[in-house]
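Morning, I've got a small favour to ask if you have a moment. I've been staring at a protein lately and its backbone has me curious. You're getting the sequence in one-letter code plus the fold written as tokens. I've dropped the whole record in just underneath, so have a look:
=====
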Amino acid sequence: MRKHAFRLAAGLAAVSLTATACGGDEGGDTTASGEGAASCDSVTLGFIPSWTDGLSTAYLWQNVLQDRGYEVEFEEISDAAPLYAGLAEGDVDVYPSAWSEVTHAEYIEEYGDQIEDLGAWYEGAVLTFAVPEYTEISSIADLAGNTEMFDGRIVGIEPGAGLTDVTKESVIPAYGLGDAGYELVESSTTAMLAELQSAVAAEEDIVVTLWHPFWAYNDFPLKDLEDPEGALGEPEALHVLARDGFGTDCAEVADLMGQLQLNDEQYAALENTVVNEYGEGRYAEGVEAWLESNPEIAETLKG
């Protein structure tokens, strides 16, 4: 999955647009300081649609950049490995919401010298195990003694996700869940949410792998299981990552992206508005509505 030969094509979702890499104008100074720096006409944003922090921030940047006269292309990619490979190879200009400190640290170790970090836009993202509020356990440590309650299933997401690796390599061994008879069901975020919805509707017990920030916490009655062993890792910031050279080629955009800072309340409202209130086919309208409700952010990003 992570070899250069795999590249971007092997992970593309059904909807995949041809990338138009961000290129500098002829004759301009190519410093990244902003003053006299080369500009660009288009920016390609890569993201995983089912990871809605990336989806909502991609549509936010589409709104902001188009308003400033840039052409914005999307590359919707199914998994993290080809997305980081796409950045490293220059097939994608920007990944607007990367879990690069902890969850995707292995990709930074592999590709970090081919990727630019434009800054962190959100602090305090965490990986979680969650159950419905009515489920009568409170800790991951309680799972081992309640295998039958969950039919021995931990419902996960994409096989290439950092959360999946952490679950298999850290959480399951730390709590003896393999010996207790648990299996991690690797599928997709969409499939996991469908199982969660069915279980909650029937008031059945289910344990799923999740994360904060994520809109599912607003839509489902969930509680996070305590992690006394710290197996899920420390909280991390979400970063804007770019291909190598982007800060030089597209200095104005790079500087602008480094200015975005959202707190919990602001981001929760963004994701909820885009994903839930407006939804598929109307994401752009959702961003516009959120910007109207957050004029201080609109002023920062749109000038």
In short: The first strand starts at residue 12 and ends at 16.
